[in-house]
Amino acid sequence: MQNNARVEYDYSVAKAFTFTAILFGIVGMMVGVTLAFQLAFPHLSNLAGEYGTFSRLRPIHTNTVIFGFTLSGIFAGWYYMAQRILKVSLKESPFLIFIGKLHFLLYFITIFLGIFTLLAGYTTSKEYAELEWPLDILIVIWWVLWGISIFGLIGIRRERTLYVSIWYFIATFIGVSMLYLFNNMEVPTALVSGYGSWMHSVSMYSGTNDALVQWWYGHNAVAFVFTVPIIALIYYFLPKESGQNVYSYKLSILAFWGLMFVYLWAGGHHLIYSTVPDWLQTMGSVMSIVLILPSWGSAINMLLTMKGEWQQLQTNTLIKFMVLASTFYMLSTIEGPIMAIKSVNAIAHFTDWVPGHVHDGTLGWVTFMIMAALYHMAPRMYGREIYSKSLMDTQFWLQSTGIVLYFTSMWIAGITQGMMWRAYDEYGSLLYSFIDTVTVLKPYYTIRAVGGLLYLIGFFMFAYNMYKTATAGRVLDKEPINATPVAA
């Protein structure tokens, strides 16, 4: 793609979503660390009455991190990247600027209300879909607004070729639209019966059907929020930051279609040894194994983009963030399929290995990549140099240590749980009671909490560095350039 310096980009919406990424990141991670310490030291659950219990705080943690922090980072990346990739400014379309700002406003209101309704106890009790029906309607509205922004900018673009990152953003929009609409079909009980709370609803599905639709949605929420748009970010920011072209554009397209066709069938691995039909469980396991191919295709493509330029890891912290993010992507996308094998799942299911797997992906892959993207964007959005590169480097090592403490402690805890639950004596009686497993895991829960705290401290460093960059960083005469010219 040809560079066009005459286009003056509008970063107002990207800046707004950058703010909410930092705000909701702090809120979500603080709640997560609180929960981790509660599990290690249960008496901490009693400090705030019902509002401090695990059942109230856990959905706030997951929803704020997924819909608050992660989506904010994705939207910030879109409103920054799309203009530069498509060589068109939002300033050229007052309508699209209005759509972008309305998108942000409704989004912020939704997440704000979501936190408080969950704290008050209003929940559908469906994993990653806990928000009640009025908020679901708001989500659909601003998701459609984002779609208008996507196809609106594509429609007025100057760059004829659609870079692969745009493909991944389009897939995110279509995939989440389909998943969210079908899984969140619900009946507001007060509107139908005239009784009960207007914030209460029941699912349109029941029993096994509800479980199947829920985990078709739940696993693919990981696909189309934690994977596909994050790949869109790294395919743009790693080449831009390193000055290297993407190693293989063909591989990026092959991996894209592989993810699209395979990911949607893998959700059944959440329901192994349940009442759903055995063939669906087997298909979930098989498709999870097949999923290694497109996942590693993307990750290897990212790492090979740095071929011949590995020395940049010594001097550029953002490259370290993105390379380690790709490495964690590889780790989590081999770990998940292994856990989906039925014999392994017999040990792993319902154990702490599962949150260990989730967090090496979300902390190491998703959050590292979003922070790297925002760090790259900041000098170009605010016209100021990064305030402290040494603080950025300290943050990297502190958070990397936190992740390692987190997932290793949960791996050990999870396998310990699984083996203790399956241990029998010569008479066929269980060797251990449930409380025995809880007692033996306390040291690992403490290590997990410490790891989470280190990561949270690193995120505060990130927030401070971004704030100081926007307000006190050295003013730049011109936009930072790459080491060598690249496409896009």
From TrEMBL:
Subcellular location: Cell membrane
Keyword Translocase included in the entry's annotation: yes
Domain of life of the organism encoding this protein: Bacteria
Gene3D superfamilies referenced in this protein's UniProt entry, alphabetically: Cytochrome c oxidase-like, subunit I domain (1.20.210.10)
Catalytic reactions on record: 4 Fe(II)-[cytochrome c] + O2 + 8 H(+)(in) = 4 Fe(III)-[cytochrome c] + 2 H2O + 4 H(+)(out)
GO biological process, one term: oxidative phosphorylation
Gene Ontology molecular function, alphabetical: cytochrome-c oxidase activity; heme binding; metal ion binding; oxidoreductase activity
Binding-site positions, Cu cation: 219, 269-270
Cellular compartments per GO CC: plasma membrane
Membrane topology: Multi-pass membrane protein
Record's protein name: cytochrome-c oxidase
Native species: Arcobacter nitrofigilis (strain ATCC 33309 / DSM 7299 / CCUG 15893 / LMG 7604 / NCTC 12251 / CI)
